[in-house]
Amino acid sequence: MRLLLLSLLLLPLAKLDAEVDVFNVVNERRVMIITGAGGEEEYTELFAKWGGDLAKAFDGNAAEMVYITNKPEDIGGRKTVESTLNKWVEKPDVEIWILLVGHGTFDGKAAKFNLVGNDASDADFKHWLKPHRGPLVFINTSSCSAPFIRTLSGPNRVVATATKSGYEQNFSRFGGYMAAALGHAEADLDKDGAVSVLEAFLIASRQAGEFYRENDRLVSENALLDDNGDGMGTPADWFRGVRTQKKAKGKSSADGKLSRLVFPVIPPAEKGIPAPLRKKRLAIEAKIETLRSLKKTLDAEVYYRDLEKLFLELASTNDEIETAQQE
Questions:
Q1: What b/e sequence results for 190-206 when a residue is b if at least 16 CB atoms lie within 10 Å of its CB, and e otherwise?
Q2: Backbone angles phi, psi at 104, to 5 degrees
Q3: Which of 139, 192, 278, 315 has the most CB within a 10 Å radius?
Q4: What would you measure as the largest C-alpha separation in the chain, in angstroms?
Q5: Which residues pair with 67 in a beta bridge?
Q6: Between vectors from CA 133 to CA 128 and to CA 134, what angle results, nearest 5°?
Q7: Quick one: what percent of the chain has pLDDT higher than 70?
Q8: Distance between CA atoms of residues 122 and 241, nearest Å
Q9: Are 19 and 154 in contact (CB under 8 A)?
């Protein structure tokens, strides 16, 4: 029985070594912030503010940042998105972030993000990003955004949407809370000194829900996050702290294990870590998260023995990092 349990553990751990990629490397990070058409003046100003907040959060945390505004004269947003991504994917291993704030639509087949000028669909982004095989964070905070998860999900990808369905069509407030949380110390739920994508997602989801409850309104947006590549997404209420309390369907692992290790605002101490050591540490941390998710299926002795081994390996790697930073 113990050998069977051990084999169940080793399979996902071994798989992670091949799949894990390097996030949080400033000189490899490309960030695109896209502010969509507001339609009404109130929304135009609101989206512009949220986009500006995101731009401030990523200042100094990217090698290149492209900020597409929703000013009336900026009707070439779609062409800018396409040409920029075509350039970025020429180096297919770079870390790409795409953040959308605005309105969305869904006609039952295609989900679109409303730009000043021609809109961009989930299929468009899939096509533009097809050559890219490196780390990707894609956050669509618009209404009707859920289909983007199934379309863009994959290995080494973190995808978040403001809705759980393309038919949640009302104005979404999730984007404002997300923009505020990315650089806010109070969103650091696990108190590790940095706010991860997962933590920002959880805080923003919680605050959006509180808005509807406090105003006695029916909740019209339910955010999802996907980072295990299954295209399903997980809502915030599945999490306790930064870990899911429910089991994913089928053979899928739980969401949250990758996104809790990805940081929009990279702590200063992280920026000087050599890429090989960063990748080594990320692989160990991912193994720890996988092991924790299997706790209920493992013999206690096996679980704690392997957890101790991984923590010792992590401590040794952190010593290597500290030595490298002092040189």
A1: eeeebbbbbbbbbbbbb
A2: -135, 165
A3: 139
A4: 67
A5: 33
A6: 110
A7: 91
A8: 31
A9: no
